[in-house]
Task: structure prediction
Amino acid sequence: MKIKVDINRVALQNAIEEAINKKITSGNGDGTNMHLTKDQDFLICQIYKMYLQSVKSGNSKVDSKRFSSDFCLNSDKLVKWNRQDLMMTLNELGVKNLVHIYIGGSFYITDEGIYYMENRFKNGLDEVTDFIAKFIP
Result:
Protein backbone atom coordinates (compact mmCIF):
# COMPACT_ATOMS: atom_id res chain seq x y z
CA MET A 1 0.00 0.00 0.00
CA LYS A 2 1.45 3.38 -1.04
CA ILE A 3 0.35 6.70 0.33
CA LYS A 4 0.87 9.79 -1.71
CA VAL A 5 1.62 12.91 0.31
CA ASP A 6 1.30 16.33 -1.25
CA ILE A 7 3.79 18.75 0.28
CA ASN A 8 3.14 22.42 -0.03
CA ARG A 9 6.71 23.64 -0.58
CA VAL A 10 5.93 27.24 0.28
CA ALA A 11 4.30 26.26 3.59
CA LEU A 12 7.25 23.98 4.38
CA GLN A 13 9.77 26.74 3.62
CA ASN A 14 7.82 29.19 5.78
CA ALA A 15 7.75 26.70 8.66
CA ILE A 16 11.50 26.16 8.39
CA GLU A 17 12.21 29.90 8.33
CA GLU A 18 9.94 30.43 11.33
CA ALA A 19 11.77 27.70 13.29
CA ILE A 20 15.15 29.22 12.41
CA ASN A 21 13.99 32.69 13.43
CA LYS A 22 12.74 31.38 16.77
CA LYS A 23 16.16 29.84 17.40
CA ILE A 24 17.98 33.02 16.43
CA THR A 25 15.83 35.40 18.42
CA SER A 26 16.07 33.42 21.65
CA GLY A 27 12.70 34.41 22.99
CA ASN A 28 11.70 38.04 22.79
CA GLY A 29 11.51 38.46 19.03
CA ASP A 30 14.27 41.00 18.49
CA GLY A 31 17.38 38.83 18.83
CA THR A 32 18.65 40.52 21.99
CA ASN A 33 17.60 38.08 24.70
CA MET A 34 20.78 36.02 24.61
CA HIS A 35 22.52 35.22 27.87
CA LEU A 36 26.22 36.08 27.71
CA THR A 37 28.89 36.38 30.36
CA LYS A 38 30.71 39.72 30.57
CA ASP A 39 33.72 38.22 28.78
CA GLN A 40 31.55 36.74 26.01
CA ASP A 41 29.71 40.03 25.66
CA PHE A 42 32.93 42.03 25.45
CA LEU A 43 34.48 39.65 22.92
CA ILE A 44 31.49 39.56 20.56
CA CYS A 45 31.33 43.37 20.73
CA GLN A 46 35.03 43.59 19.79
CA ILE A 47 34.55 41.13 16.92
CA TYR A 48 31.50 43.01 15.65
CA LYS A 49 33.34 46.33 15.89
CA MET A 50 36.21 44.91 13.81
CA TYR A 51 33.71 43.58 11.28
CA LEU A 52 31.99 46.98 10.96
CA GLN A 53 35.31 48.81 10.66
CA SER A 54 36.43 46.44 7.91
CA VAL A 55 33.19 46.93 5.95
CA LYS A 56 33.42 50.70 6.44
CA SER A 57 36.99 50.58 5.06
CA GLY A 58 35.64 49.16 1.81
CA ASN A 59 36.23 45.43 2.32
CA SER A 60 33.51 43.01 1.27
CA LYS A 61 31.21 41.65 3.95
CA VAL A 62 32.44 38.14 3.16
CA ASP A 63 36.07 39.13 3.79
CA SER A 64 35.13 41.26 6.81
CA LYS A 65 33.43 38.29 8.52
CA ARG A 66 36.69 36.31 8.55
CA PHE A 67 39.20 36.58 11.37
CA SER A 68 42.64 35.04 11.73
CA SER A 69 43.70 33.16 14.84
CA ASP A 70 45.79 36.16 15.94
CA PHE A 71 42.98 38.71 15.50
CA CYS A 72 43.41 39.84 19.10
CA LEU A 73 46.65 41.63 18.12
CA ASN A 74 44.47 44.22 16.36
CA SER A 75 42.82 45.25 19.63
CA ASP A 76 44.68 47.01 22.43
CA LYS A 77 42.18 45.55 24.91
CA LEU A 78 42.18 41.95 23.68
CA VAL A 79 45.95 41.70 23.38
CA LYS A 80 46.07 41.92 27.20
CA TRP A 81 43.86 38.83 27.63
CA ASN A 82 45.33 35.47 28.55
CA ARG A 83 45.44 33.44 25.32
CA GLN A 84 43.66 30.42 26.88
CA ASP A 85 40.91 32.62 28.31
CA LEU A 86 40.44 34.26 24.92
CA MET A 87 40.16 30.93 23.11
CA MET A 88 37.81 29.53 25.76
CA THR A 89 35.54 32.58 25.44
CA LEU A 90 35.66 32.35 21.65
CA ASN A 91 34.65 28.68 21.88
CA GLU A 92 31.74 29.65 24.14
CA LEU A 93 30.58 32.11 21.47
CA GLY A 94 30.86 29.26 18.99
CA VAL A 95 28.55 27.11 21.11
CA LYS A 96 26.03 29.96 20.99
CA ASN A 97 26.38 30.09 17.17
CA LEU A 98 27.66 33.66 17.19
CA VAL A 99 30.95 32.60 15.59
CA HIS A 100 32.15 29.53 13.70
CA ILE A 101 35.68 28.39 14.55
CA TYR A 102 37.96 26.43 12.25
CA ILE A 103 40.44 23.83 13.48
CA GLY A 104 43.41 26.17 12.96
CA GLY A 105 41.88 28.83 15.22
CA SER A 106 40.65 31.21 12.56
CA PHE A 107 36.93 31.93 12.63
CA TYR A 108 34.13 33.98 11.19
CA ILE A 109 31.27 35.87 12.75
CA THR A 110 28.08 34.07 11.74
CA ASP A 111 24.95 35.58 10.27
CA GLU A 112 23.34 34.86 13.65
CA GLY A 113 26.12 36.85 15.35
CA ILE A 114 25.66 39.78 13.01
CA TYR A 115 21.87 39.62 13.40
CA TYR A 116 22.18 39.63 17.18
CA MET A 117 24.56 42.59 17.18
CA GLU A 118 22.58 44.59 14.59
CA ASN A 119 19.47 44.31 16.73
CA ARG A 120 21.36 45.12 19.87
CA PHE A 121 23.23 48.15 18.49
CA LYS A 122 20.84 49.76 16.06
CA ASN A 123 23.15 52.76 15.46
CA GLY A 124 26.05 50.58 14.33
CA LEU A 125 29.72 51.32 14.83
CA ASP A 126 29.37 54.47 16.96
CA GLU A 127 27.07 52.78 19.45
CA VAL A 128 29.16 49.61 19.79
CA THR A 129 32.34 51.70 20.15
CA ASP A 130 30.73 53.72 22.96
CA PHE A 131 29.63 50.52 24.69
CA ILE A 132 33.13 49.02 24.51
CA ALA A 133 34.69 52.23 25.86
CA LYS A 134 32.39 52.11 28.89
CA PHE A 135 32.77 48.36 29.44
CA ILE A 136 34.18 47.35 32.83
CA PRO A 137 35.20 43.68 32.92
